[in-house]
Amino acid sequence: MAADPGTVRRRLAADLAEVSALGRGEVHVDLAAEVSALVAEVRAQADRLGFDSPIRAATLAKKHLNELPAAERTPGSGIAAYHRAASRTLREGRVTAHHTSPTGEQLLTFHRAAEEAAGTTVTLEAQVRTEPDGTVWLDSFGWPTTPVPVYTFTGGAYFDQAVTDLADDTVPFDRAMLMLLASVLDTAPSPPDNEQRIAAAQQIARRRQDLNGYLAQARNYAYAAFGREWFGACLYRSALEAVFENFLGSVAFSLVDMAEVDEVDRLLRELLPEAPATTAAVPAGIPEHHWWWQTALRN
After folding, report:
1. How far apart, in Å, are the Cα atoms of 121 and each of 152, 269, 293?
2. Where are the domains of the chain?
3. Is the whole-model pTM more than 0.90?
4. Per-block average pLDDT, block size 10, for the chain (299 residues)?
5. At 239, is the secondary structure helix, strand, or coil?
């Protein structure tokens, strides 16, 4: 069913108004300065820096918001939270790359290890583009596109965190799924016992709509698995597999349409071999039978 044009127009207008209210845009730097001075200028103006298009700013914020730690997605709207986290990455992150194109554009890459729950960290990447006239724009922000670990699991109370998250409807469901995946990785301290599995299954079933929303997001990632979305496609598919195998069992068939899971798998088989995947991004301890990671790394 086609979206109502009036609804689309109102939503777009609301998104653009939010972007405008941020008061962000281009900033200017002295290209004659050393790289260290250029970085210092970017850091100093991080809270003013924005994308070169308000539509792109709104789109990327909605597309990549779930890549941020749950605590960084609030307060305020997702658009504001996304830009706030990007600015923090520019201010606090370390510079990992500096490239100059043949046309004179410079690209600076910043990485920040952001804390998630239960001793988990996620690497966030912000890139800024400097044009030959000294104009600087925010170019991208979200999970890294370079060969570095994305999620690092160094804690242990993943299952307890997952149950706490599942019981709290204000916590993003994807964080609970991440914690459930972490609880069954080969590197996890100890797997949940049967009573814990049943308790988790009951909470997952209670949040059936969120589970189906998560599957829908996995499908969205899968459609773009040939590009930078390969990581999200594999991560979400692994989380779903972990939940189906270790917590829901046959109950999964009554909660989600397995034909949709099959469609995700079809897309992954078709598109992941083209992905710009890196071994470094694969979380440690991923079960060997999660074939999608190896499919992504095939080339």
Report:
1. 5, 29, 20
2. 5-142, 155-296
3. yes
4. 77 93 94 92 97 96 97 91 98 96 93 97 98 96 96 94 97 98 92 92 98 98 98 99 97 98 99 98 97 94
5. helix
